[in-house]
Design brief:
3-stranded mixed beta sheet, two-stranded antiparallel ribbon, 5 strands
């Protein structure tokens, strides 16, 4: 596992694969919904749905309706853009 590449699949070094594209991945037939990969964006393939569309960085907040025949995605523009915070902690 190499956590340094941060771009979309296909942009990483050729010897690396996203975790959901590893051949023989367990639970390949189980749908997994996740976020926290803003450079990936919205992804609906490989039995996974990624929902991080970069709201914090000026993108949109994305939701998906899973009970529809085809997944229905909805995006809501973010109202504010935050600069990176030292230490990665948002004050509460």
């Amino acid at each position: 596992m190499d956590l340094r590449p941060k771009s979309r699949p296909g942009k990483q070094p050729s010897h690396l694969l996203p975790w959901f594209q590893v051949p023989g991945r367990m639970l390949r037939d189980t749908r997994i919904v996740f976020g926290h990969w803003s450079t990936l964006g919205v992804w609906d393939a490989d039995s996974v749905i990624a929902l991080d569309s970069g709201c914090l960085w000026g993108g949109a907040l994305t939701a998906v309706r899973l009970d529809a025949e085809a997944h229905l995605f909805t995006g809501v523009p973010c109202r504010q853009i935050l600069a990176p915070i030292p230490g990665g902690v948002i004050p509460g």
